[in-house]
């Protein structure tokens, strides 16, 4: 069996990128973003991308790079947030946006990985989210039909991988990454650490290697904080007495 381990992010994406493709990109806010793979997609020059991601990064970080380079023409996301470039391109008509409720987005991706073309949910009934979509009544309640999401390529970030591509995620970086790994034709994973075969307890594997095609060691691990709130240090009783 050929090795799943690639020497660098550029090599890990070699031969996979083409104009008009659909890419799933993991992450939630700035946690668990494929920081090393996104710049390589930018540098490749591919255009007309449809990108499925919870959000589109923040200024100077993550998918924001692909918005800045005008390589994304369509986003399927659940959160626009404070990304001014995302907002500007959508409002100007430059970027097509399909806004999906967060839980629905996660389930659409999971359904894509599980081979389930459609499912029904109460979320979005009676709102613009349901416009143009079939509805059906179950036990007296109206539900809207949502369809699966699948992609040509998933780029995700994990904490650790072994040579077979088995993955472990760390805390909130787990977010959308595991489901996206199941819903694409090819899954490329960047990891903070590659460990020897046999390191993982099978019960501790979050994503089995069967879903992973290529693994590369991360070259960027910034782990930015999206919003940092602080307050002045409160004086202690001792300090007040002094």
Explain how this protein is built.
With 242 residues, the chain is an alpha/beta fold. The chain has a single domain, classed as 3-Layer(aba) Sandwich (Glutaconate Coenzyme A-transferase). It contains seven helices and twelve strands. The strands form two sheets. Strands 1, 2, 3, 4, 5, 9, 10, 11 and 12 form a nine-stranded mixed beta sheet that branches.
Helix content: 10-25%
Structural class: alpha/beta
Mean pLDDT: 94
Q: State the order of secondary-structure elements, H for helix, E for strand.
A: EHEHEHEHEHEEEEEHEEH
Any idea what the shape is? globular
Largest pleated sheet: 9 strands, mixed
Whole-number total of structural domains: 1
- Rg, please? 20 Å
Per DSSP, the total helix count is 7
Regions with little confidence, pLDDT below 50 for 5+ residues: none
Distance between the termini: 71 Å
CATH class: Alpha Beta
CATH homology superfamily name: Glutaconate Coenzyme A-transferase
What is the fold named in CATH at topology level?
Answer: Glutaconate Coenzyme A-transferase
Number of DSSP-assigned strands: 12
Task: Assess the beta-strand content as a share of residues.
Answer: 25-35%
- The CATH architecture designation is 3-Layer(aba) Sandwich
What is the secondary structure topology, with strand pairs?
Blueprint: E1 5-6, H1 9-12, E2 22-25, H2 38-44, E3 49-52, H3 64-68, E4 72-77, H4 84-91, E5 96-99, H5 102-114, E6 118-121, E7 135-138, E8 141-147, E9 151-161, E10 167-168, H6 177-182, E11 184-194, E12 214-217, H7 237-241
Parallel strand pairs: 1-12, 2-3, 2-9, 3-4, 4-5, 9-11, 11-12
Antiparallel strand pairs: 6-8, 7-8, 9-10
